[in-house]
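Continuing the series of single-chain predictions for the mutant panel. This is the parent chain; the variants come on the following pages.
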Amino acid sequence: MARKKVSRNAPCPCGSGKKYKHCCYGKSFDYEEDDDGTIFKSTPMSQEMVELLEEQRQKFVQKYGREPGPKDPVFFDVPHPEQVEHRTVEAMKAAGLDPAIIYAYEKTGRLVTEDNQQLLSDADLAEWDAAIEEYEAKHRKKQKPPQYPIGTVALYGPDDKTTTKIAAGVILHDGAEPILKRWVATDVTTNPKVQQELKDFFLQHGVRQVAMTEGNMGCPHEEGEDFPHGEDCPFCPFWKGKQGSNRRD
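Parent structure:
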């Protein structure tokens, strides 16, 4: 039975409710319909897929002694779909994939990547995105209000590997100016004296919560004191354009 392409002004067959031309038209597949109005999704096959199907056809002929018919499964020699899904999920977990992606795969039965998005309808992509959002909503940690007094710890060094300065602060209440204290040493992060003084500093002000930077956030010199505002530190070339008011992202 002959088929023709779905009109661009027709409702998109994916079920999004939008017109075809504003939805799935122009993706890497076409929607076609036959004389009875039955809709088909036509996806061009890569050479690799053509070769794979031919290999499967030969396997079928070798096993059953005939050509495969329209109702015969193409991949007749693979495990049950539930077994395939279970093995896939276990492999994804072992590979350390984002649990949200695994959840969406289990819920939608598909795996969406940058490479295959053009092969999926807007409705399929929306279903995938909804599954991702559903997982994140279920597992999103409720943020607790800050517990004042809050302690802060910022690390600094001539590059992102060597830490030579610690700047600690205490914020007593919302809107309060921080109380600051600094330590400078070549072994500042492991120096027992510095560690004890930092602990005593927080205890002195009754700190209940501490926030700390992940790695060095800049050089140990201070803009406005050691070098002019808006310029790079002349002593630490590693941080050129990466810190202070002269930061360029």
